[in-house]
Design goal:
Length: 348
């Protein structure tokens, strides 16, 4: 005899739209809390399968079913189950078909790409000519929507930025972004000036991942090929309005600049882009310990290689760090997190 939970799950793909909607409403409510998700575990596999069916059937149940999937996918075991059920291909099929609720579909992708397995699935690694196709589609939609949307408008593709941060932990994604002649890195760094903080946060993480691994990946030439890319990287940390409010964005770009300053080729390009002066001005009013440390490291590299005169040291080098800032640095070093997931869905 079926349990109440099993009966509830069975209604998710009922032929009657109102029955599906009511079932999805109850499930999404349960999935909005940790206790509720625990209650759903006995029917987890069946539930996830039925939720996807409800999404595909449309109607009022569609969004509530996606909310439940997004909330449940925060749990690593559920994310793994979703990957077993081919979640990436199924979501991308919905995205290509311009299905409603793109915000939740991309949130789901952000959560499942927190794992390397999810990233490989997103990148379609080992699938021959299909490799990178999903990412190419997402990148195009992400960049295009970033240009066409007005400030304050709903941004259905904002969570793609988190997907980009996650997948660029893998060299295959970094090399995809840096393919010669495609201008993908330039399009990505342009998002650092977006009005949407989520876009700036995710894009800065992806750019940092690409830059910090450029030497080992053999892609340093590609990173430095376009001066406009370097200028975009300097803007969040040059102290000029509009000021970047997100500490993480400034820290990512400062660390990326410091890495480039550690190479002769990078120093030359940074010099041509006015990096020493940008660092000096940006440092004057910078208070975040991690950003300050990275900017100091970059300036020291310029000085140690004779790229700038020691006269520009004040304001960038030789500044005594206060005990309060030192304590903050110690706290910052204990924090961290490599990937970015989407926030909880609706229905709480």
């Amino acid at each position: 005899m079926a349990t109440e939970l099993e009966e509830l799950v069975s209604f998710l793909d009922d032929s009657r739209p109102d029955v599906r909607a009511m079932s999805a409403e109850i499930v999404s409510g349960l999935a909005a809390t940790t206790d509720g998700i625990d209650k759903l575990k006995p029917v987890q596999k069946q539930l996830v399968t039925k939720l996807f069916r409800a999404v595909g059937m449309g109607g009022d149940a569609c969004r509530k079913s996606l909310v439940a999937l997004v909330n449940m996918s925060h749990a690593p075991d559920v994310a793994d189950l979703l990957l077993e059920l081919n979640v990436v291909d199924r979501v991308m099929e919905f995205v290509r078909d311009n299905m409603p609720h793109t915000d939740l579909l991309t949130s789901l992708l952000a959560n499942v790409t927190l794992s390397d397995q999810g990233c490989r699935s997103m990148l379609q690694i080992g699938r021959g000519p299909l490799e990178g196709l999903h990412m190419a589609v997402l990148l195009k939609k992400f960049v295009t929507s970033g240009v066409t949307l007005s400030p304050g408008e709903p941004d259905p593709y904002e969570h793609v930025a988190s997907v980009l941060t996650n997948v660029t932990r893998l060299p295959e994604a970094r090399k995809l972004l840096l393919q010669p002649g495609r201008g993908l890195l330039a399009a990505l760094v342009a998002q650092l000036q977006s009005w949407n903080a989520l876009r700036r946060l995710g894009s800065s993480g992806a750019v940092k991942n690409c830059v910090l691994s450029a030497e080992s990946d053999g892609t340093l030439d590609a990173v430095l090929a376009d001066k406009v890319v370097i200028e975009h990287m300097l803007r969040p940390i040059n102290g000029q309005p509009p000021l970047e409010k997100e500490d993480t964005v400034r820290e990512c770009m400062a660390e990326a600049v410091a890495m480039l300053a550690g190479t002769a080729q990078g120093r030359d390009v940074l010099w041509d882009a006015g990096a020493p002066e940008a660092l000096r001005k940006g440092y004057e009013d910078e208070h975040h310990p991690g950003v300050c440390t990275a900017m100091e490291r970059a300036a020291e590299l310029f000085l140690s290689h004779g790229s700038i005169d020691s006269g520009m040291a004040p304001g960038v080098l030789g500044v005594q760090i206060s005990s309060a800032v030192a304590a903050q640095q110690a706290q910052q070093a204990q924090k961290g997190g490599e990937g970015e997931g989407a926030g909880e869905g609706e229905g709480k």
